[in-house]
Write the structure tokens for this entry.
Amino acid sequence: MPIRIATHIPTLKLRRVAIDTYKENVVYLHRDCALYRSEGFQALSKIEIHQEDNGQQIIAVLNVVDDENIIQPGQLGLSEQAYAQLNLPEGTAVRVVHATPPQSLRAVHRKIAGERLSYDEYLGITQDVVENRYSKIEIAAFLVACSDNGMDRDEVLSLTETMVKTGERLDWGEALVADKHCIGGIPGNRTTMLMVPIIAAHGMLIPKTSSRAITSPAGTADTMAVLAEVELNPQHLLDIVHQQRGCLAWGGTAKLAPVDDILIAVERPLSMDSPGQLVASILSKKVAAGATHLLIDIPVGPTAKMHDQASAMRLRKLFEYVGDRMGLHLVVVITDGRQPIGRGIGPVLEARDVMQVLNNDPLAPCDLREKALQLAGRILEFDADVRGGQGYIIARDILESGRALAKMQAIIKAQGQNETSIKPGHLQHSVLAACDGVVGSIDNLQIARIARLAGAPLDMGAGVDLHCKVDDPVTKGQALYTIYAEFNADYNFAQQAAEGDNGFTIASPSR
């Protein structure tokens, strides 16, 4: 419904303020602005910005400025996010008024009180979130309420369905579109980059769009970027998938379940990852991306997201319930998450591991190879022509014959090969065993933290290269892993973190 603006309200001139507010519209008024004083605006209140000639309008959170070098009293500053959404040139005259609180906030208050919400209430919330009618504070309140008070399985289904409905949805025009997702938390777990060429070489469609890392040392898109271009426009992506039967690209260019991106922007700083939100996030993205058949990998281990089998089974049942009602053919596998997968942790080191496996190199990490074959085999069994139990053998044959390597090379060429040779960081530090014994455990979280402190994933050559795994015998002074970094500050941070806790426990060898 169009909003009527009082004509007595003076206009302000737009000014672009080069501040990245990541998924939140923020605007800036000078404290001496007459409008700020007359209308009783306050910092962090929400306001509506309107351009009367073409009806453009957005809702944004207000910040108040005292420095005229940032904003003048007669101007309205827009963050990069707000400027892009309003899509008007600098200097345009606009009017601002207090924003009307979204009606769906009533449902959020009910959820805070521990009540169950309906489909229509979740739809109202997701629509208002995607239209930027919620501040990050209000989104945080919604997420915490859902996490603390819990969502039953039908609420998770409602949230998933409404997240799909409020974005775009791809249709590949085929009855079987495969996809795979790991819930995360395991460093070096680059099975996707092996599975896609194996499955595509078999002829199945697997358009894999992945995120970049937010809290991990590398995401699939970060590692693939070492080898090829990953930021592809939607039409180019469609062409590649139809030609090659697969891709390994960044998913940020498509507006698939955009509510999920906004919610994640709030969840990550809060370290929130409740089961209901996790399921809704993953399945909404996969359904929106056009997947019909999906494999979910749930690693279990002391420092994985799922610490025990009981928690993993509860999550598995929730995935299966929601996936079935969303029309997905879903298989959930529970895997070993006691330690990192592969040796490299960080884009360049992980890309090296992937290419070693594809090249059937004797030095390739066996655990990465084996897990990728097991998971690829399960996806191949989605094919009606593949008998149950035969998927692994077919996947192994595709890899050992070189067909997977050829398909990966074709995908890299189609996406645009990275001509720059990226090497591991030139600053190197080996972390040594303090005593003789056997590797008893490896802390996924600490190893990932050290790799990030070293500069991964922003510095592609930074990270950690493991030399030992759980149950390997070690002697005092033997290198457990090597830290790679590009810059002295990162190198020192990572080295200090490893000195405080290197992430390994060494146990006495059993007799």
